[in-house]
Recover the amino acids of this structure.
């Protein structure tokens, strides 16, 4: 049966031996080994691939693949141990063995270098040959490798190629020198290569490709036959020494640089080194080491020295900042960024410099304010008039202008650092926050920053924006807002701003309502709705008042009041809670002051308006604020020569009241200060100031004072001055130091502070109650931190104050203590 | 269920919509019907074979060239039938031969839907169009790669086109374009051309890529910087297409939007390209083969300038006639015989084929050869003559495959093809040889008959011992499985022969060489198929209740139960045979007739050991036991643990 089957189907039989006998194997192997030897000696061009392949194929088919493998390996080993080893060892000249460490003399270096190049090229040649041979042998024996792959694997054997590479490693590279047992070819290779690299680092030209080739060889060889990536000879036997040598080199270099060069040069050198090492990894050594070498550079050259470089006296970051050395700064920054994502040293240096410069600005502006203060208080009594007057004006302006200068300086500083940040620091987040913190810290270190900033706005909105384009105004305001961002106690700023704004509004000193509104909307964007609520309400009041005034005029006309002499009234009705408190308060030192007595004419109008207003809005209470008003009056001066001179005087409401007293007096009659005070009940302060502006100010002496001095004493007498001279028909008589916004003096500031604290107390309590209502129960620490975070947008609350407020709330039974450890509060509904 | 994670089956309404759209497109003539109706007799036979799982007939029909993607009057395609009836091997064969099972088409989804079990369904999904390709794709990919391949140098003509130079192959140009053929005929020795400046280089490049069966370009590389506008390039292509008489070139560039349309166009184009290559191959390479005495081969000198542009010659030696029986020496040896020194009176003949290295590169053997620094890769005055260790017929088969992707050959050379393909590393041809052997060689192995095969009852086409050794030697898993299956279905005929024992011994030693495991691969496989042989019947009978009853019992009992049922079936068959009725008298759609109870008691039934059994049921049960025991005995005799 089976015989018949075989006729039907047959297998190829040519070229195959009868029984896989030894003879066939030997026969084939003989041809094969002969040819392989010819391959070694580069005499392969006449060999036929087909024939060699068939030899290998046949051997595999007769199941002798294992033997073929072993014999091929043996053949390779013999070849490598003999001829190849001899060649390599012959290529090592004694000079390579001697000076293993440092080369001191230049000649010796040259000599060694030449010997090294000779040796490397021998090795390179041998390696190339070996690779070519193995490629060819692998090709010839490809049937064996492909077919027997599984079996070879399972027997823990590796491909003949890998095996041959391992043989090369053991029999060529690890062959020890005949002269000394301890040194192998690989050791010589390593020391030679390191020597070459050392040469290149110190600026010599070397044969890069040659070195690279030999390193590549180490990369192509492995510790084990299984050829795991991590066991590359390069990694196991070369790299550690290479890295160590590099570290030593750069440690020394770093030290040398620190001693000899300045910061900018240091950076430049480091930069060059980085580029150089990167290139070296690609062209001379191995890319495998790139990251490690980078690490060494970072460590030895940068990290260890950076702090010192940044703080270099005279050339460090401080000077670079001062001189705007963008290039150098950006180098320093890049180096810092390499070694430290937080760039601690750099940020510290920058912050320090910013705070220093900021403090200088602070100090300068206070110095300015200080110089003015003494002159103000030491102003001598009246007597020498004009000089003194001038001096009196000056300090006021000086303080204000010092505030404005302060703001301008800070803005300039800010611009400078913004530029640096953008151009040198690569718009880095970490540095940005460092810069912000530094600015904020020195700005908040002076308690007057809020006031100064508000003054800056005040000044600009009153005068500064005159003749400026919309864009300029916009950027001006924007700058101010930038500073506002840094101010922590925003409520304090709000208070000042409100105060200044109210003056601007009521006294119509504002340059442009558009700019005012713009300002408000900018603040709204920056700080939030709550912040601007009251400011907006102030604007609303102004608008409503205009309508009110006109409708009141209509009302009066309809009434058909026959009194032609009736006063015209422009009225501003202000919502008391929205406007600054000191304007509204009728109290002084806790006592309610009686309203001042207005002359009859005025009183009628007042009553008429009250009637009109309360008709419209019943249930409201009107309180008159004379101190804030102005009046236009027509004054007639009877000259001694009989002529009559008329002037229109624009005066404050109080001044009007005072002047009206003189209407009923004859020219030589006088009123004492006390008389006036009794008849008008104008508060002392205001009275004195108004009298000063009417009788002392040189250009607006509508009254004569006796004795003529600067100060006003209760017994001073006042006459109407018929000799009043002015070249203008209309004369504006300002109230001395009453109307203008300027830097507050100590008392005023204390007052503001106090008000602020009261207000803050309210806010804190509100916040506490809000939080507790929601949480019902909260530990002390949590409560404090929540309060702080809720209020941080407006101001930085004092923890002690918060504690006091909690106590007070407990006393008032809003809260209760529910536990002691940890201290916990509960909300009492 | 497990499919759900990856791809869910398309909903029925979606399927209907796509079916409707498809029909419309086909009617409009935009696309060709993938599954045309086929009412021819050969196709009907193929369908029938697919139903029954008859591998041999399937293979024969496929080789005959029956369209395996056609459909029968009930809209069934062979693949649907095979997967519906659960014939894994048939389905695999169809898929390997290019049967389509494309997701998102009606027929494709239907196929998946109908698959009898998960094993088949996974097989189908594996061959989804996105993964599998046109069977001709490897050929196309190879020719296209010739344009960019740098090593080894195979080009014999350079064309300067604008800034770049194209390195081309005369035989490809001649085969693919009548224009080039004509031009090269008049001056075959040309080695360089210059493109007229009127033709945009891009257009020429596109045309060349098309000739080399490359993918059509996404865009025409026109516009700023190239010096030509798109319309100029296009006009150029048009002109070239006319010139080169390649009328489908323009189409291939135009409609590349529709995925299916593009695929069809490409399939058609590759098929056309293949036909052109084949025609050229037959007219030139095969026409120019030289038959000569082996001793005189070295006298043949071919110049590099030859009319068919060959650059290498392959040599195959004829076998001496008497060598055919050389193997009878003993059944203990390897299936492959020794070299018989040919009789001195007969001079050995050789056949030489002039070939093109560009195509030979498809074999890794040749690729390595031509890339190596050995003699064959060097340029000499005359063409190298490279001997190839196989018969001329086989070499012709191999060359035909390399040039045309065609692999149609008979069973009798298939083993030799298998060895040659293995030697030359042509995986696809090797697989093909294995397929031929395992399908055609299965003989009349319909399960029903195989089961009752006894000594001398069936004529065997093949020496299964030789096959399995060849399988081991060439590492073809499929063939090993085939042999095991073959043995399992005819175990009675082999189990007692010493040759079989030896084979088991060999299999065991193979494994021991690999690893110290305690299993013998061949034996395991045989047991598996033995089990299948008996189990199959049970499944086909479809008596589920029996299954459930036996589900609780021990495995052995279950096997016994299976056998019981199986016997009923085979009883029926025997009756049928006795009455000279055809075996498949009552088999219509299913390969096995449904079980009919109560008819199996009329004949005397003997088991393998000659005992008289009560009925077929118990006979098979006993037979199974006997076979299993015998396997164990062999193991004991061979001192093997398994």
């Amino acid at each position: 049966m089976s015989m018949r089957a075989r006729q039907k189907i047959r297998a190829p039989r040519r070229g195959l031996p009868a029984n896989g006998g030894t003879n066939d194997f030997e026969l084939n192997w003989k041809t094969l080994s002969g040819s392989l030897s010819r391959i070694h000696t580069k005499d392969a061009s006449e060999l036929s691939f087909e024939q060699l392949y068939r030899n290998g194929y046949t051997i595999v088919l007769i199941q002798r693949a294992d033997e073929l493998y072993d014999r091929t390996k043996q053949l390779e080993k013999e070849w490598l141990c003999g001829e190849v080893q001899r060649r390599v060892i012959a290529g090592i000249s004694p000079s390579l063995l001697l000076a293993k460490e440092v080369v001191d003399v230049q000649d010796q270096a040259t000599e060694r270098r030449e010997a090294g190049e000779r040796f490397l090229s021998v090795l390179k040649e041998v390696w190339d040959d070996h690779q070519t041979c193995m490629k060819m042998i692998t090709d010839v024996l490809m049937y064996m490798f492909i077919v027997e792959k599984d079996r070879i694997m399972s027997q823990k054997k590796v491909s003949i190629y890998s095996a041959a590479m391992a043989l090369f490693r053991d029999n060529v590279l690890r062959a020890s020198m005949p002269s000394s047992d301890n040194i192998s070819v690989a050791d010589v290779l390593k020391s030679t290569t390191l020597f070459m690299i050392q040469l290149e680092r110190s600026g010599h030209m070397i044969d890069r490709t040659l070195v690279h080739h030999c390193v590549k060889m180490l990369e192509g060889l492995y510790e084990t036959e299984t050829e795991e990536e991590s066991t590359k000879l390069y990694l196991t036997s070369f790299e550690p020494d290479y890295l160590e040598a590099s570290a030593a080199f750069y440690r020394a270099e770093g030290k040398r640089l620190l001693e000899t060069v300045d910061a900018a040069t240091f950076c430049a050198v480091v930069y060059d080194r980085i580029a150089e090492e990167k290139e070296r990894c690609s062209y001379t050594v191995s890319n495998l080491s790139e990251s490690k070498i980078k690490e060494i550079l970072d460590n030895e050259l940068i990290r260890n020295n950076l702090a010192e470089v940044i703080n270099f006296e005279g050339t460090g970051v401080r000077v670079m900042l001062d001189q705007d050395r963008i290039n150098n700064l950006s180098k320093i920054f890049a180096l810092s960024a390499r070694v430290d994502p937080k760039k601690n040293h750099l940020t510290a240096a920058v912050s320090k410099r910013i705070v220093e410069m900021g403090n200088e600005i602070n100090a300068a502006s206070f110095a300015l304010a200080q110089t003015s203060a003494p002159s103000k208080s030491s102003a001598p009594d009246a007597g020498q008039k004009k000089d003194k007057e001038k001096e009196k004006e000056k300090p006021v302006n000086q303080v204000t202008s010092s505030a404005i200068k302060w703001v301008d300086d800070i803005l300039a500083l800010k611009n400078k650092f913004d530029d640096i940040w953008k151009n040198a620091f690569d718009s880095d987040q970490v540095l940005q926050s460092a810069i912000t913190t530094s600015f904020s810290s020195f700005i908040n270190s002076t308690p007057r920053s809020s006031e100064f900033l508000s003054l800056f706005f005040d000044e600009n909105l009153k005068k500064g924006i005159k003749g400026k384009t919309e864009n300029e105004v916009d950027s001006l305001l924007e700058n101010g807002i930038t500073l506002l961002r840094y101010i922590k106690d925003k409520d304090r700023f709000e208070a000042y701003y409100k105060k200044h704004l109210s003056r601007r509004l009521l006294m119509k000193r504002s340059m442009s309502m558009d700019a005012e509104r713009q300002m408000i909307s900018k603040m709204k964007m920056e700080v939030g709705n709550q912040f601007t609520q009251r400011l907006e309400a102030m604007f609303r009041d102004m608008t409503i008042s205009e309508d009110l005034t006109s409708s009141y005029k209509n009302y009066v006309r309809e009434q058909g009041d026959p009194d032609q002499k009736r006063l015209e009234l422009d009225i501003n009705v202000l919502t008391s809670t929205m406007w600054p408190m000191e304007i509204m308060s009728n109290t002084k030192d806790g006592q309610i002051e009686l309203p001042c007595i207005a002359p009859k004419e005025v009183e009628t109008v007042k009553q008429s308006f009250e009637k009109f207003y309360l008709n419209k809005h019943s249930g409201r209470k009107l309180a008159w604020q004379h101190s804030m008003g102005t009046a236009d009056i027509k004054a007639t001066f009877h000259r001694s020569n009989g002529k009559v001179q008329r002037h229109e005087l624009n005066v404050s409401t109080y001044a009007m009241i005072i002047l009206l007293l003189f209407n009923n007096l004859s020219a030589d009659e006088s009123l004492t200060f006390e008389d006036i005070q009794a008849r008008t009940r104008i508060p002392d302060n205001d009275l004195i100031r108004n009298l000063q502006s009417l009788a002392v100010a040189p250009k607006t002496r509508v009254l004569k004072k006796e004795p003529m001095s600067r100060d006003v004493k209760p017994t001073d007498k006042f006459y109407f001055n018929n000799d009043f001279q002015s070249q203008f028909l209309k004369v504006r008589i300002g109230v001395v130091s009453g109307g203008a916004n300027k830097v507050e003096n100590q008392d005023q500031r204390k007052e503001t502070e106090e008000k602020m604290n009261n207000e803050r107390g309210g806010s804190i309590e509100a916040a506490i109650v809000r939080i507790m209502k929601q949480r019902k129960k909260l530990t002390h620490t949590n409560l404090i931190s929540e309060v702080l975070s809720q209020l941080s947008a407006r101001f930085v609350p004092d923890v002690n104050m918060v504690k006091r407020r909690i106590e007070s709330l407990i006393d008032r039974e809003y809260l209760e203590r529910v536990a002691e450890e940890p201290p916990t509060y509960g909300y009492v509904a | 269920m497990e499919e759900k994670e990856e791809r869910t089956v398309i909903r029925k309404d979606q399927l209907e919509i796509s079916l409707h759209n498809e029909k419309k497109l086909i009617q409009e003539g935009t696309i060709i019907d993938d599954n045309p109706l086929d009412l021819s007799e050969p196709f009907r036979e193929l369908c029938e074979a697919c139903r029954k799982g008859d591998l041999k007939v399937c293979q024969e029909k496929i080789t005959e060239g029956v369209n395996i993607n056609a459909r029968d009057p009930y809209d069934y395609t062979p693949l649907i039938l095979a997967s519906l009836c659960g014939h894994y091997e048939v389905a695999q064969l169809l898929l390997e031969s290019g049967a389509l099972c494309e997701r998102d088409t009606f027929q494709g989804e239907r196929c998946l839907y109908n698959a009898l079990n998960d094993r088949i369904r996974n097989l189908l999904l594996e061959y989804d169009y996105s993964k599998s390709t046109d069977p001709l794709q490897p050929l196309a990919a190879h020719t296209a790669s010739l344009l960019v391949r740098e090593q080894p140098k195979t080009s014999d003509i350079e064309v300067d086109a604008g800034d770049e130079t194209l390195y081309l192959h005369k035989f490809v140009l001649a085969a693919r374009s009548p224009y080039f053929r004509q031009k090269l005929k008049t001056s075959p020795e040309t080695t360089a051309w210059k493109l007229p400046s009127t033709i945009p280089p891009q257009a020429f490049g596109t045309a060349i890529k098309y000739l080399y069966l490359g993918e059509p370009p996404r865009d025409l590389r026109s516009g700023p910087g190239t010096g030509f506008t798109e319309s100029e390039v296009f006009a150029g292509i048009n002109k070239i297409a006319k010139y080169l008489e390649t009328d489908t070139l323009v189409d291939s560039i135009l409609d590349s939007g529709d995925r299916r349309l593009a695929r069809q166009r490409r399939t058609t184009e590759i098929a056309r390209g293949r036909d052109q290559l084949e025609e050229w191959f037959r007219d030139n390479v095969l026409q120019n083969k030289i038959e000569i005495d082996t001793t005189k081969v070295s006298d043949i000198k071919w110049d590099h300038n030859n009319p068919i542009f060959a650059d290498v010659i392959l040599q195959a030696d004829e076998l001496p006639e008497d060598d055919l029986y050389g193997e009878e020496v003993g059944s203990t040896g390897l299936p492959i015989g020794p070299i018989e020194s040919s009789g001195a009176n007969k001079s050995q003949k050789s056949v030489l084929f002039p070939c093109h290295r560009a195509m030979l590169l498809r074999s890794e053997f040749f690729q390595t050869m031509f890339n190596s620094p050995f003699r064959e890769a060097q340029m000499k005055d005359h063409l190298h003559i490279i001997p190839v260790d196989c018969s001329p017929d086989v070499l012709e088969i191999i060359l035909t495959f390399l040039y045309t992707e065609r692999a149609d050959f008979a069973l009798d050379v298939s083993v030799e093809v298998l060895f040659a393909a293995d030697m030359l590393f042509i995986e696809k041809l090797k697989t093909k040889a294995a397929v031929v052997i395992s399908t055609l060689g299965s003989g009349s192995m319909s399960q029903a008959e195989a089961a009752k095969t006894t000594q001398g009852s069936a004529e065997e086409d093949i020496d299964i011992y030789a096959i399995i050794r060849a399988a081991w030697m060439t590492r073809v898993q499929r063939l090993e499985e085939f042999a095991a299956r073959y043995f399992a279905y005819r175990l009675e005929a082999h189990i007692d022969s010493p040759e079989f024992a030896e084979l088991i011994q060999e299999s065991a030693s193979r494994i021991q060489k690999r690893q110290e495991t305690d299993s013998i691969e061949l034996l395991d496989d045989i047991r598996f198929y033995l089990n299948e042989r008996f189990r199959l019947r049970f499944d086909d009978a479809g008596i589920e209740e029996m299954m459930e009853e036996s589900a609780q019992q021990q495995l052995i009992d279950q096997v016994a139960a299976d056998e019981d049922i199986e016997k009923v079936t085979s009883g029926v068959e025997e009756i049928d045979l006795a009455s000279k009725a055809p075996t498949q008298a009552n088999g219509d759609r299913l390969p096995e007739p449904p079980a009919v109870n109560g008819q199996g008691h009329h004949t005397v039934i003997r088991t393998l050991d000659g005992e008289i059994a009560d009925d077929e049921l118990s006979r098979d049960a006993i037979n199974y036991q006997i076979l299993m025991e015998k396997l164990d005995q062999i193991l004991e005799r061979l001192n093997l643990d398994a």
Q: What stands out?
A: Chain A touches chain B at residues 1-20, 44-50, 52-54, 57, 61, 132, 136, 139-140, 142-143, 146-147, 150-151, 154 (CB under 8 Å). The first strand of chain A starts at residue 587 and ends at 588. The first helix of chain A runs from residue 2 to 8. The radius of gyration of chain A is 49 Å.
